Amino acid sequence: MPEELISGGHLVAKALKAEGVEVIYTLCGGHIIDIYDGCVDEGIEVVDVRHEQVAAHAADGYARITGKPGCAVVTAGPGTTDAVTGVANAFRAESPMLLIGGQGAHTQHKMGSLQDLPHVDMMTPITKFAATVPDTARAADMVSMAFRECYNGAPGPSFLEIPRDVLDARVPLSKARIPEAGRYRASTRSAGDPADVERLADLLVHAEKPAILLGSQVWTSRATDAAIDLVRTLNVPAYMNGAGRGTLPPGDPHHFQLSRRYAFAGADLIIIVGTPFDFRMGYGKRLSPTATVVQIDLDYRTVGKNRDIDLGIVGDPGVVLAAVTAAASGRLNGGAVQRKAWLEELRAAEQTALDKRLPQLRSGAAPIHPYRLVSEINDFLTEDSIYIGDGGDIVTFSGQVVQPKSPGHWMDPGPLGTLGVGIPFVLAAKKARPDKEVVALFGDGAFSLTGWDFETLVRYGLPFVGIVGNNSSMNQIRYGQAQKYGPERERVGNTLGDVHYDKFAQMLGGYGEEVRDPADIAPALRRARESGLPSLINVWVDPDAYAPGTMNQTMYK
Questions:
Q1: Strand 5-7 and strand 238-240: pairing?
Q2: 442 CB contacts (<8 Å, ≥6 apart)?
Q3: Hey, which residues does 465 pair with through a beta bridge?
Q4: Which run of H or of E encompasses 48?
Q5: Average pLDDT over residues 469-494
């Protein structure tokens, strides 16, 4: 009896299945269709989009939502180059995903085959691993290897190119290495140096004015419970950024948002968890020079980068924080009692900042003030609403006001600042969690980059509530031009048309509505929710209102 044969595409699908991948995001191409055939046999859904950038962003978003690596499959040449932005975004955001790209046949190497490009060379700087699958029997092995590398240190993307003849060829099943699920990579949940954990516990017990920043790795490593336990047990005020937002619910006595600069200037102990000293942190310069600074991170290279620290712990945030809580508990009451006055001081600073902003949050002006729009969105969110921000100035406004009510319910591009992630993230979030409501705020410029895949959401029946903060401008850049070159040159290369995105949504089979009066925002959002369709509420906002974060950007100083 002849031995069973298996193709490269079917081996790829088996490896995806072993990793727990449930869906691939793709735009079809002749180089990659055997992977589709394998996915059909393995029960992996094939979701086709209109642009490869969307496929890559969706794979990134899938990883963030599920905690499992995402996967995008694109064809060679322009298919792979179209996906570069999505991979680069995942790289800076520490999001584990695999991009598989097609390639011309080995037999046509260097002959100028259709869509031939040096993909591996191009992808190497923006991935944790990039390689060519050299032989059909290695296809599943290489996929598993790429996934393993996604979790080397802080998570990130990997890339594999598979030549067409390697993918289509069939080899005896006995010659192919097919790694078994759960047996080809180890746990990455390192606890750090026990002596350093004890030292941090001691610092916390004796600190009078500590503050902790919970960054994206708190969600990436699913450290929510450990983080909550530490701040409540030891009475530590917590600030959250990136995907760490929502770790504590709004209204929690340890949840702080508006007083971070005040806290970091006055604290005697600052603990930075899972976020680098990058531009969002002023490269570490905004921390009190007299404070004891501790950094906890999955990646050794991040700890102490751009700023000296007093203690660095490389490890899984959840494991480390749980160990610190255990080590500090019971010693001088964990120091919790002595911090009561510090929390009251920060709460007063928080209220002062809110009172200053309150008139704009409730503004009845038209065009609508962006603060009023994002305040209405914040009031609209439920505990089951995943919030997605895609834009420049409008999303900067939302970052100060919108508070997700549950862990893992905030999505933004991350430190690469990529516009256009919104629709792909909606696709990933709603596909992975159909039980959740998805609410997305777009700048009009950001929506334009990937907005055609609104049709993909309609085609797959994936309802969401979308809001376009429409000022007919790339306003974050406009502000900088006005500051640098004066008002007579502030409109160069940044002014968009007055596009009715509500009608665009209707044209593609979704729900659309226009809003010009702030009193109409909340009813429009409710109607979008009740429509059961992908929706766009086109809200005309004041083009001359700029977010404080926009005005404070160092590039405009």
A1: unpaired
A2: 390, 391, 394, 422, 451, 466, 467, 468, 469
A3: 439
A4: strand 45-48
A5: 92
Spatial neighbors of 382 by CB under 8 A, at least 6 apart, are 405, 437
Mean of pLDDT over the chain: 94
Residues 6+ apart with CB under 8 A from 146: 98, 129, 131, 158, 159, 160
Distance between CA atoms of 313 and 303, rounded to whole angstroms? Answer: 8
Determine the Cα–Cα distance for residues 480 and 389; give it in Å rounded to an integer.
Answer: 21
- Whole-number Cα distances in Å, 140 to 7, 154, 166, 242, 489: 10, 24, 12, 34, 56
C-alpha distance from residue 28 to each of 69, 70, 481 (Å): 21, 18, 41
User: Is the CA virtual torsion 182, 185, 191, 193 positive or negative?
Assistant: positive
User: 290-337 pLDDT, tens per residue?
Assistant: 999 999 999 999 999 999 999 999 999 999 999 999 999 877 676 788
| pLDDT value of residue 523 | 98
**Of all helices (H) and strands (E), which one includes residue 429?**
helix 422-432
- Is the pTM here over 0.90, yes or no? yes
Q: Report whether 155 contacts 217 (CB < 8 A).
A: no
Is residue 160 predicted with pLDDT exceeding 80?
yes
Residues 412, 242: contact at Cβ < 8 Å? yes
Residue type at position 176: A
Residue 51: Cβ within 10 Å count: 21
The alpha carbons of the chain give a radius of gyration, in whole angstroms, of 24
pLDDT tens string 385-417 = 999 999 999 999 999 999 999 999 999 999 999
Picking from 470, 479, 488, the residue whose alpha carbon sits closest to that of residue 541 is 470
